[in-house]
């Protein structure tokens, strides 16, 4: 494992609990990276594994220390400091907020799959 990745993990574990950091990685993986591994960047090259790992782990751009990708970790409410919060897929809410029966069924299946694959058996 590259030393800069280890340093990033240690730095972030100083700011977040292991569960919060795991939530960040899972949220970003599901919202952005799981379907974009073969995607090319602005210069036409495929992203390297280290780049993706850093994108999953690094803190967001917001200056608010409690902000995680546009949501406050203490209240799960939108961050008042972020002008453009990232989309957040909330598995626990997905099957109730989807509009159509097909969307609700799909969202529920995604939620079950995510919970089944969750690290350490956390639910």
Key words describing this protein structure:
single chain; mainly alpha; 5 helices; 2 strands
In a few lines, what is going on in this structure?
The protein is mainly alpha-helical and 123 residues long.
Helix-strand blueprint:
Elements lengths: L2 H13 L2 H16 L15 H9 L9 E2 L2 E2 L18 H7 L3 H17 L6
Antiparallel strand pairs: 1-2
Helix pairs in contact: 1-3, 2-3, 4-5
What is the element string, with H for helices and E for strands? HHHEEHH
Regarding quaternary structure, what we see is single chain
Low-confidence stretches: none
**Arithmetic mean pLDDT:** 79
Individual helix count: 5
Q: Count the strands? A: 2
Can you list the strand order of the major beta sheet?
A: 1-2
Indicate the percent of residues in helices.
40-55%
The geometry reads as: globular
Secondary structure class reads mainly alpha
Describe this structure in words.
The chain has 123 residues and is mostly helical. Helix content is 50%, strand content 3%. It contains five helices and two strands; from the N terminus they run αααββαα. It has a two-stranded antiparallel ribbon. A hairpin with a 2-residue loop joins strand 1 and strand 2 (71-72). Helix 1 runs parallel beside helix 3.
């Amino acid at each position: 494992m590259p030393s800069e990745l280890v340093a990033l993990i240690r730095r972030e574990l100083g700011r977040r609990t292991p569960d919060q950091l795991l939530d960040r990685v899972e949220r970003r993986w599901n919202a952005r990276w799981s379907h974009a591994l073969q995607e090319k960047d602005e210069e036409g090259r495929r992203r390297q594994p280290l780049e993706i790992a850093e994108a999953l782990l690094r803190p967001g751009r917001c200056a608010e220390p409690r902000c995680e990708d546009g949501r406050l970790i203490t209240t799960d409410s939108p961050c008042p400091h972020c002008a453009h919060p990232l989309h957040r897929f909330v598995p626990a809410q997905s099957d109730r907020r989807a509009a159509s029966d097909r969307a609700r069924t799909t969202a529920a299946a995604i939620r079950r799959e995510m919970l089944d694959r969750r690290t350490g058996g956390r639910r």
